[in-house]
Amino acid sequence: MKTIHSLEEFDFSGPVVLTQGTFDGVHLGHQKILNRITRLAEEVKGKSVLLTFYPHPRLVLYPEDNELKLLTTLREKEQWLAKHGIDYLIVLPFTKEFSRLTPLEFLRKICDHLLVRKFVIGYDHRFGRNREGSIQEIEEFSELFGYEVEEISQKEVDDCIVSSSKIRRALLDGNVSLARDYMGRFFCLTGTVVHGKGRGKNLGFPTANIQINDSFKLIPGSGVYAVKVELKGRSELFGGMMNIGFNPTFNDGALSLEVNIFNFTDRIYGQEIVVHFVARLREEIKFADAESLISQLHLDGEAARKVLETL
Fold this sequence. Notes:
The protein is α/β, with parallel strands linked by helices. It folds into two domains: 2-162, Rossmann fold; 183-309, Elongation Factor Tu (Ef-tu), domain 3. 32% of the residues lie in helices and 26% in strands. The strands form two sheets. Strands 1-4-3-2-5-6 form a six-stranded parallel beta sheet. Strands 7-8-11-10-9-12 form a six-stranded antiparallel barrel. Helix 9 packs antiparallel against helix 10. The relative contact order is 0.12.
């Protein structure tokens, strides 16, 4: 897959099968669309293209909306899309000026640079200034720009139980198993290992403290999780258990993300880490003392290992 950041960079002169959207999470519903455009691209002997935007349009149009949380950062999205065989990912900068394009201007801008032969789009898709554009406008201008429209029908959408909003709700509830069913893979967090308070080491369970660099990345609900850990430059995945929460036993008050990597002693401060959430073990608990917490951590470790052994 080739990623470009402007229509002018598009370097293929043959026929294109295009879809457009945010594709946050690249979940099973998105994957059906990706499979469709790659199949259609083969039929027309052309290329499959996904057109998306960065930042997310809501962040530009409604900057006061700080409740928006995304399932995937742009980099994570790019990595997952690459696994599904599309040829081009076009990430257009989304600006207020861009948002003012009429539906016709938007389609002309695309078709001036891409030889679109098929446009695959959802029945309820909206685009252009004030979201004036819909499937009707795409069909209306199809003869002008020489493409065919394939609509993802309401029945197809309604029959698909997956949506990004459902996955967000599941994750905020800590239900990472349900999120996995919707996504077809484990939900993951990508961050940087930073120095913490060293408390885990003193308890006998050293942890890597993780800083998430994208403020709009969704973080699952508080609790203890069985996880798989990916470290840059290493092919193996490490097992571990992760705590997300506020460390109520020690009255910390600030949200922390800490992962205890099993059978691992390397210093990895400053390194990138990816945590894949396998299962939620329990909710976060305030313990009477450190000894009670240590006893529970031993039980958590045993439970996490049992879960990971089944993979």
